[in-house]
Design a protein that fits this description.
The protein is an alpha+beta fold. It is built from 10 helices and 8 strands.
Length: 375
């Protein structure tokens, strides 16, 4: 049994406390600096869309011309309630100067809703010049802000510090930078991500692999191909509906959105394309495997469109993870999507490589058997 000297324990504890106190004294303290700042108020969602290569919901460019952003675009679509910021002009562009905290965002919504729907000023330029009063801690967030409309036009209200230092966010070695905007994904967006990864990242490519392995050698097994394709088709359609309902407008501008639209259109046409095989001139392969010319052409079209759609879908699933990260969605959306995409799409890719390897080995064996027979 080991006996410990109580006095030594007390001395060690006292030493730890002294060290901690000295460390706290050395650390810099940031005190609140009351400021009054005037600038264009913009919603975080539209800014994130513009930054990712898309556009705001009302079609305006909030980075190069925030004065064109409309009052109703921030007040009416719920997707814009992610939060708001006051902008700062830097050269020919406007970027976030101050993000608003919970109190400031509530104040922004109250201010926006104070103007009734249908007000003639809803669609006028330069109507969202706002004066914010709050505390600046140097982290780019205006805390506890109260807001009111700024009178005097852009000259008096655009990027104007009316009181205090108006520091904004300062990064060591780089000076002033824009605070980071993190968007909260909606349930519709979560559903879009899930449906699209499951469909284009797994079910639809698996259906193509099924056809590659089974259908062309045993037509009776086409039911597995058909089941996978139809379930995947329904999932991708649900995913498309979810993202349209999520965004409401401003669709199909960013590269991920454009590729996704084209892939969904091509994939949605495949079931209709498949019905052409019932035409008299197309028909089905004979028992000996012979096919009509129209049947051969149909197979080229059907398989070719399927391969292109699946390849585009897999690429866009991967691209979508990077797109969500670049837009600024947080709350676990990006890592969850990345893990799911790697698991599902990765398994399909492994399956495809295995099929290719097996076919290569089979061809080699057939070739060597033919050579032996010739000898």
């Amino acid at each position: 049994m080991v006996h410990t000297n109580p006095s030594s324990c007390h001395a060690a504890a006292l030493g730890t406390l002294v060290t901690l106190a000295a460390t706290l004294l050395v650390l810099p303290t940031v005190s609140a600096a009351p400021v009054v700042y005037a600038g264009y108020m913009v919603d975080n969602y539209c800014y994130a869309q513009m930054k990712a290569g898309g556009r705001s919901l009302d079609g305006t460019d909030v980075i190069r011309d925030p004065g064109a952003h409309l009052w109703h675009c921030m007040r009416d679509p719920r997707i814009c309630y992610h939060g708001f910021y006051l902008a700062e002009k830097r050269g020919s562009e406007w970027h976030p100067k101050y993000l608003l905290d919970g109190i400031g965002n509530n104040a922004a919504l109250a201010l926006l809703r104070g103007r009734p729907v249908g007000d003639p000023r809803d669609y006028l330029r330069g109507e969202v010049l706002i004066t914010g009063r709050g505390d600046d801690f140097g982290d780019g967030t205006l805390r506890g802000a109260t807001l009111q409309e700024c009178q005097g036009g852009a000259l008096a209200c655009d990027t104007v510090c009316l009181k205090g230092n108006c520091t904004g966010k300062v990064a060591a070695g780089t000076g002033k930078v824009s605070p980071e905007i993190v968007l909260k994904p909606t349930v519709l967006l979560w559903c879009h991500v899930l449906f699209m990864i499951v469909s284009w990242g797994c079910l639809l490519p698996a259906g193509v692999l099924w056809a590659r392995v089974h259908v062309w050698t045993d037509p009776k097994r086409v039911s597995g191909h058909r089941a996978l394709q139809m379930i995947g088709w329904c999932f991708q359609l649900l995913g498309f509906i979810c993202v349209v309902a999520h965004k409401k407008s401003g669709h199909f501008v960013a590269p991920h959105e454009v590729i996704g639209f084209l892939v969904v259109v091509m994939g949605s046409l495949q079931p209709l394309n498949a019905q052409l095989r019932h035409l008299k001139g197309v028909g089905h392969p004979e028992l000996d495997g012979s096919r009509t010319d129209l049947r051969k052409k149909w197979e080229y079209i059907h398989k070719g469109c399927g391969y292109v759609a699946v390849a585009g879908g897999i690429i866009n699933v991967v691209f979508g993870v990077f797109h969500a990260n670049y837009v600024g969605f947080g709350h676990g959306l990006v890592p969850a999507a990345a893990v799911l995409a790697v698991m599902l799409t990765g398994s399909v890719v492994v399956g495809f490589v295995s099929v290719q390897a097996r076919e290569a080995v089979s061809h080699e064996q057939c070739g060597s058997t033919g050579d032996e027979a010739a000898e």
